[in-house]
Records
---
Amino acid sequence: MSHNLINVNSQSPDRVGDITAVVDPFSLAGAVSEITHGASSNNASVGDYAQIIWGAYCNSVRVTSTFDFKLADSRAIKSNNNYFMGVTLKEVGYYYVEAVMKFICTGTEYAIVQIVNASNNAVGPKAYYGEQTRQTIYPSTIHAVINNQSVNSAYYFRVQALSGTVGQPTINYGSSYFKCIKL
Amino acid sequence: MSHNTIAVNNYSPDITSDIALSSSVSFAVFGKGETSAYSNSPATGLATNDQFYFYDTTPINNITGLTFSTTNNWSTQFTLPAGQYIVQWSFHLEYTATGWYSHLNLKQSSTIVGTCAIGETSDAEQSNGWGIAYIAPTSNTTYDFELGGVANIDTVANQGTTPSEYGAFYIWKVAD
């Protein structure tokens, strides 16, 4: 009998030697987080990295050993210590990154955001926030499958273009979240 | 102790006899923001029931039995073997006037199996053209993407690189 001789994912065999092991095919991490806005003076500009401050819900985030949130990056171009969104992927392999965000907007503006690597090369499709004839910018999904080819590589959510005075990402309208899955 | 005497899926026990068993998901990716004019695609129009094409020069496919059909790196359709899958997709289009709108439907022959919308009308409310569908073919089955409910969408020639830069779809195999 293998009882007490071996475990699988810390699950021990039962009396007949069977192990009911839980294997999660999606190493889900960062399932739910809050995206809040900073000072109104920190509106988005072309070349900015989307500014996201992780709030109270961070306590519920399942952070694994395979990635880190990228906060307060040294490349931040704003001066008031706002955080700039990014992620460091610790292992070689494929990751799925997805976030839903909404930008503060008071007039006829839009922003285009894309996930880029540390050299500003796009690694996923663009996401469009807003439309010039609308009064507000609604939540939009930004996503990418990243083929990370070296350990500890950084990726950023970058504003690639915008029109008008687009503000911070905001939790308004709800459904703001970020997730990173090691595939 | 079972150390060095047993393995599960080629995972061996550690020194405390625990096997850290992991798994991976089979997935496919088509589209990552590359730039190509939509006029390079097979598209001849952007009306309801016209096919929509995604662009990728190096798509990822590690789903056994999945095949992408492409023309000049534009996807025309894909075929999945029996199994259970989640498909996600996003798209964006250039428009000609306010009140613009379009669905993007995932279709199996003439049957819509999933949809999403983008545009400016009250139906769209600036939704972001982000679709998700669960499909479970029981044998090799072919799918494509087609537009629906089209209003005030610009011509193929005037789409520029918008469809290629914003369009992508993912397929996740979630069960056999």
---
Amino acid sequence: MSLLEVEGLTVTYASRDGPIAAVRDLDLVLERGQTLGLIGESGCGKSTLGKAILRILPEGTQVEGFIRFDGKNLATADEDTLEGYRGRNLSMIFQDPMTRLDPLMTVRKHFIELIRAHEPDAKGAGAITRARRALTAVRIPPDRLNQYPHEFSGGMRQRIMIALALVFNPSLLIADEPTTSLDVIVEAQILQLLNSIKQDFDMGVLLITHNLGLVSEYADEIAVMYAGRIAERGRVEDVFAEPLHPYTKGLLESVIGLETTALKSIPGQPPDLLNPPSGCPFHPRCPAAMDVCSTAFPPTTHPRVGRDVACYLYP
Amino acid sequence: MATVTVDIVRRSMMGRALRVFWGQSKTVAGILVWIGLAVVLAFVAIAFLAPWIAPYDPNLPSGPPGAAPSAEHWFGTNRLGQDVLSRTLWGARIPLSVVALASAISLAIGAPLGLVSGFYGGYLDRFLVLVMDSIYAFPGLLLAIVVAAVIGPGVVNVSIVIALVYVPTYFRVIRNHVVAVKEELFVEASEALALPRTTVIGRYVLPSVAQNIPVIFSVSAADAILTQAGLSFLGLGLPVDIPDWGLDVSRYAGLLQTMWWAVFFPGLMIIILTTSLAFISEGLNDILNPLLRRKEAR
Amino acid sequence: MAEPLLRVRDLKVHYPLFKGFVQRLLGGGSRYVHAVDGVTFDVLPGEVFGLVGESGCGKSTTGRVLLGLAPITEGEVTLQFPEPERIESRQVRPLGLLLACLFWWGSAAVYVANGLAFLLASRPFLPFGFLASPPSAWLAPWLGLAALQAVFGLALWAIVPWSRRPARWVAAYGAVLSFLVFPWGLVVLVFETVLFFYLGTPALSALIRRSGRLRTPSHFALGPKGIVEGTAAESKATSFERWFLGPRTVRTTGLSWILQELRSRVQIIYQDPHGALNPALTLGEMLEHALSAHWDKVIAADLDSSRKGVQRPPREEIRARALELFDDVGLRPPEQFYAKRPTEISGGQQQRVVIARAIAPNPRLLVADEPVALLDMSIRAKVLELMLDLKRKYGLTYVFITHDLATAKLMCDRIAIMYLGRIVEMGQASRIYADPKHPYTRALLQAIPIPDPRLRRVKVLPKGEVPDAVAPPAGCRFHPRCPVALPSCGWEGRDFLSYLEERRLDPEKAAQEERALGAIEAWKADGLASRRKVRPSEREAVLARVREALAQAPEPLAKAVAEVGAQDNVVLVRFRPPDPLAPKEVEGRTVECLLY
């Protein structure tokens, strides 16, 4: 059985101007020991998806569909069950570690608070040992437990967050743009660390990012999101070698890497989620758009082994 | 021509602000504001129309002294035989005009000083903050009493006195906000473009900061009513022959047992007016802050 | 070889860290953030010069120095624009300015004083009763105040010769204030407004302005004392403004004309397009502000001399030029975007507006501070393309600041790699990318994720992160992280402590280490040495352990140790001083590294 199975997930925000469907009818599967890179640009719904799995969305947000984890459907589970999962079996790390750590609490207190939240009877000494072990796993000198978040650099803070996320040996780690605010060398360090931890702890990692290079280097599978839906999914080597969906193609062409010689971009603007285009949301910008594309969202097909595409070019 | 005007209204900040308030009328905060505004406007209308709607002259005895509320005198008469209803209606004028004037003056003094002080910083700022904090440290009524004693009676003087009490509030809030807004990237961008100082202060800093003003206004106005009533109560500030709620409350407070109507109605008006102003400020606060946050968050 | 447009020589920007009251009492030197610590480079006209590095390396600060937005602690920046001196028809006559200030500032003083006067005189409040008072009641005070006007205006002119615009605001404000208290203020307001602002201004303008030649500088030198080029009167005003208005001098100082001139030739594109746009204004208004502030430069570029000496730029012309700019940056149809607000457009469009605003004053040099870092990948290429198009169309020169080596490779002709306030490698971009010499450059290139799984490789990354700029490492700043460091690179006490910390990362060994060498807090780093207080009885044991630890240490660290010894109750580890470090020419680029 897969570690995480998402089926028909729809997340609708209640905004001042009307309901916004940030995620629409989405399917996703994640296996143990695997890193799934979820790629998308701003507004595509990838952060929403990550938060939806942990159900940490703002009040008034509607979640429909199935999120199967550990035999339960997280989409309909009650708050108590969810609290039992969060931080324990399912962890999440976020983009800006400084705002996620309490500046008035030492690192030690962060750990103790976390451990006590799930194990109210945990003894102090045991908790400290676990904290020290977690810090060592992320290569932070354990003696720095008594320091405050502002005494650490950006990369170290992110590693503290990772350590906090690992205290209970979760089976699934969701990383929402974990290195976007960090420099490129630190970014590489953190992702290498995540990879080794993933192997040591036999975790599944959902890496949410807009950086195609990261996905290429550190992920096993890639899923491309556009306007709340998955446009394409498959093994990283396959998708990069032969992108099927026109959006994936456009993205890969527009990425600026060391080997890029020409500037290419995707014409048009990202879609307005209040009034999304009919049918396939990419059709206004798609170089291969056909008449059928504006009628209904294309069904997901498997034109190659292990690949999913939602595009009328591959019926 | 007409379309241009509509467009200007639509596009201007005022226009947008009004539309936002209209859109907020269903929320709790919005309802509070509407209620408060309605009551305050009603009071303003009463004050204005007093000469026509008051049944009797408020200063002349029009009935037996100390009469209880009856058909001829809905609110009864006081010890001098003056109709309490007429006094109550006429009595709206002083508090409203004093508070309006006082708020206008303190806004006119406090806000620009806060703007300049926050923007330029340095010794000017340190000096002004020191001065303002010193004034702020005094309890409002106490300060008002002291200054009123020095300046003397009169409606304008009372207004000035009360204005003085609230200048530091305007100053502090505006100045602190200016100091924060000054760090915004678009303000630095206007510096980088070498825009004239007046444009930077007026079009780049002021719009963000100005949103605080209605809130401070209603908070200080509510408090000012009480301070003015307090001053009248203590006999400072106003000539005795003009009807005023605070004055009446002071004169007849001792007669609460026997002539409750002479105290009750003016006092009730004070409470209602103050509460309405507080409603407005609370509601505005709730409405404006999420807007501010939303703008910054996006 | 063309004359460089920009010359930066040994630029240093140090920001002081403000110490708390108690700390200041206890003494000790001030601490500074060494944001930029000795940077030297040239930028040639028409090229795209890249400043590349991670956060904290000083690239953004360097960019801001070019506009006078960051203070220079040491060093010099000179800008030379290849333009003939232009003829201007406006020049201010001192006497005229004096008179103008007398009237303008004086009238402001009148209104404020009006208010004060009536505070003291305490008239009763009679909204419509002013007609009841005889003129003699107000004439005398008004005349007296007019005299005050003259004195006040004179004093202000002597101190701060600001432009007349603020005076108008102050005057209007004073009028409103006095009107509230003094109904007569309305009469005075109307009278003085008519007299001074409408009848007087044209007359005064004639007095003030005369045609003549004003040298518009084409050469600027920025240094620690401000902008050196400029008249003597300018420097005096600037010092007083600095004293009176506070310590944030460069940013809040009244804008001297020299700064205005500089900023009409050098402009900046910001990283955060949403933050850089004023949410209270429409896009068109923002461009109009930028254009009218520099209108003389805008029309001078169009050498049709019939428009010389324009005082107030006509609205229609400004609007027309703003629409042209919208079109230039690809926001079409321009009329539609004119009335929009920043929140109504996307990130890429916002950045285009920022670019349009930046080129409005017709600059020669554009500092682009991470212009595409916050934009989506599919939009970056478009914006970069726009920047290159504009460069061709307007003959611009770019200083391109970025942390993304891939973008820099695509856009830049020459690049300088910065680390912790210094340039470590600089030269032709093609040469550097083909064969990076400095270990930091190599590390950066390795770390960049490549969007091609076939090219996945194991990366050898430098350990640790960019250290604090308050106390940069000695010698070569990169040495604590450098995989190929030498013993002479600048090892010091702190590095020994870091090494001790590293040894304890293994939990099994940690306890052992602690017993042997003591808690990390017991060791103090002091420049090239590191000490620990010990009891004389343990001295030899600790010494032995230290030697043992050093034997296991990485080679450069171990070889750099000059002395391990003990004196009284102190165990000491001292390193030898680093070799001097200077940029060297190596294969067509400059590198600052002891490997060469």
---
Amino acid sequence: MQLASQDKNIIVVTSDSRGSGKLTSFGESFPNQIVEVGIAEQNLVGVAAGLASCGKKVFAISPACFLTARSLEQIKNDVAYSDNPVNVIGISAGVSYGALGSTHHSLHDFAALRAIHNITIVAPADNFETEEATKLAASTGRPVYLRLGKKAMPLLKPINQDTFEFGKGRLIRDGKDLAIIATGETVYPSLQAAALLEKGNIMTAVISMHTIKPLDKTLLASISRKCKAIMTVEEHSVNGGLGEACASFLLEHQFAKPFKIIGIPDEDTVTGSQQEILNHYGITETGLASAGKKLLKDFRSTV
Amino acid sequence: MTIKQLKQKSLLYRKKILEYILMAKAGHTGGSLSCVDILNVLYNEVLNVSPANFNSADRDRYIQSKGHSVEALYVVLSDRGFFPESDLETLCRHKSHYIGHPTKKVNGIEQNTGALGHGLPISVGVALAAKMDKRSYHTYTLLGDGELPEGSNWEAALIAAHHRLDNLCVIIDKNDLQITGPTHEVCNTDPLGDKWDAFGWAVTEVNGNNVEALKKAFENLPVGQGKPSVMIAHTTKGKGVSYMENQVKWHHRVPTEQEYTLAMQEIENALIDLEDE
């Protein structure tokens, strides 16, 4: 809202998603900077592309599950291929909608968008990252996908002087035994798990890999040199997301390490609230800590 | 331009479309011939767009949703000076920008199209931007009748009427043929005018292969105040080459040398007849 008040070229396009996008007050404050297209996600992205081609700084906002599936062709052609600098904002991503079921989950978005050229993919982990990512998105003049959750997340660092750049992961805590590379809402439980592991003398580094593409290869290489094992965490299918992106880089660059991808497995997703689903798949403080401990133990038993 | 000059242009464009399709051994022959009169009138009479003002925010916008008829667009753009005609010798060649669908890498082209049902939503965004910025440019988009079952068209049609985009004009190249067969047999869209009318658009119908009728129809835009306009242009697929007209096989067939010669003779004769008019 602060951005919109300073720049009249900032336009929000929404598909009856003001409520879930927390845009009701935006619409009231800036009626000339919001375009409602009704429940029509393909049109949402196409219209956004047209506006962006005329110099508007467009944020096309809709639940990630619909936006990155139903309008995938519009993202591919009208935004990425046509190089119209739309900020595609997928809200309530992952399993944020919990018990609403698989229709409302987006566990495919990283995978689908990673295979599309010319779009930056970003999943902020807390309010600091979300704010910085939004400001950057408004100014890059390039296609960006911002994947946002629904839940309020605690700050990863209560105070920080970090610079935020797309394609530069943030080392939230350092360690030499295990590296946890996480993204979006899974960074916080990773951080909790790291604290728990430290009590058992497992020094655990945690990276907020907010940008899935382009991936921060420098940080990946340096953390991999330093740590004995690597675990990735994401609220996304284990197929095609952060984990596989890291794995392919590491393996192709001779950083073969004990490695584990934690995410939503390729199965009929268990039902329940977001937290219940995350608990079920071990994407929690204790679940991640025990997965990390096991990864290191299995590694030791093979050497 | 006089009507006679426009007619001449159409015939010359037809010759060039066939010439470059033959050279490339690829192209959408029938559709390019059906829509070329529309492009002729747009670029020579209607659009405020030229190589000199192509970067101006106030230029008129033309977005070709039926991207596969790109050969017609290339020929018209080169004639309007957007790029040298010799560029078209690279049509569909390795590393050429002149591929089988429009891309912005070619000077004069607004958007990358080719997947059907994309031109109208983008055009709605462009027309909305004009309203927001109080700019007077107009936005035109050409749809094929075969692409109308794409649902995104109707999503965009609804919202264009909702926003009262009277600066937007859809032209439908209604040649009633698509790759499988007659459009009314594949998926009937008739009565087409009634459908657009029901969606809140102002409808006009025109002979889309008659430059004089087209010129008049464009002069009468918008068809209705406060409404987006749709021009249903009744056309003949393969128009101008008698053995191609209304033949489904010419959707994307490339003529043989012999067929090419025959077509050129027919168009040459039409040019001579026109001189005598």
---
Amino acid sequence: MTGGDRRLRLLSRLQGGGDLDTQRLCDVCAEATGATGAGIMLMSGDVPRGSVCTTDAVSTLIEQLQYELGEGPCVDAYQQDRPVAEPDLAQPAIARWLGFTGPVVDAGVRAVFGFPLQVGAVRLGALNLYNDKPGPLTDDQHADALVMADIAAQALLLLQANAPPGTVAAELETNADFQFVVHQASGMVAAQLEVSVGQALIRLRAHAFGNDRTLTDVARDVVDRRLRFDAQSGEKDPAP
Amino acid sequence: MFGRPYDWDWVTVSSSGTELAAADRNGDAMTREAKLARTLVELADTLVDDFDVVELLTRLADRCVEVLDVEAAGIMLAAPDGQLRVMASSSEAMRVLELFEVQAQEGPCLDCHRTGEPVVNQDLATVNGRWPRFAPEALAAGFRSVHALPMRLRGSVIGALNLFRGGPGEMGPADIEVAQAFADVATIAILQHRAALEAHVINDQLAHALNSRVVIEQAKGMVAERLDLDMERSFTVLRNHARSHNLRLVDVAESVIGGTLGASELERASGDR
């Protein structure tokens, strides 16, 4: 099929559900490419900022880990300006993403694909696809993913274009997770330990790593006051 | 692609920059077809960082005069308010005439832009009342027949390409097609460039807005800890302080994070406790 036909077919999948929302965008990315799950990551200045949307808990994990570790298929796709594929994550041909791979394979992921989100020279982030069985995308699926990445990039800009100045568009925030809990926890720990927020974040990361937990989970415990960082005696749980 | 002004001496270069073959400096050795192809490539090859609309259109005008059977060419683009602006002309006489068109609000370019349709083969001596001010001016300047082609992409008419000839004869359909092709390529280049600029701006705004939110969330956490509040109450405290002191929320947050605005001051100011 021609590029135009493919684009029309994918666009028509997106329509018919009322106003465009990011959840629908994500869902269509997964459906159209046949992936088990999909997510869209926002990035700027070479750093993940969070996820715009995900289709399931596993995609959420994939995005959270990339945010936390700064490595993964989306990060590579964004930094290298090209699609990145690992069709056999449990037995990869290239050893990479050492922190990312273990937990996501444990969660059932067997193949991951990252597609950069770009509009001309402007780079926004990346589209993430995963499969629970190993194997590459077919040519058709790959072509669909490229078009969906293009559509998603333009959709993100379009949604942000109408935002009041200085704010993140409400339509972008609705289904997103920009990891605000991590920043809230950084503020809390900074006050608990009387250190800078930067140092607080380092302490949070160290605690997550040392306890084999995600940064997001640790941050959630801090904000929910299940975990305190005490200057004298180190981290402790405040309630029995 | 190469980030520098085009080389208009018809010298062919390889991608590494070495000269492969030189055509006649007058261009006579190149066939018209080769010139047309080269023009289209050069017009399309504009997705570079130093894209300059005026430069692109000036070269388009010069190219039209060189490869088509016309004495002068000019391009007008619509400004955001809808008014046409003279962007490029192949000669001073042409420029004066185009400015006159805009001032008099009358002429082939204006008609073309308004309708989005080509205006072709209008013999100024026989137009019979069309363009009552423009026609005599153009005739006095030595032009006898005029044509204008829309710069248009689907529903969007961004301007028009003016072609003026000294003789009364018609411009052939092949030349009209070529002229329209030139106009189309320039249109696409300009629209893509505009879209790219907009994309940059919006992306920067998003990144900036996210940065502000990060600071605000950090401050929420800090205030929540110091005043023993939940996140929502903490946000209210920050927002109330911003309002009562006529400050931006992000600036208040920066002060909290930076240590210049203490919890006790927020507590005093807060009307929620």
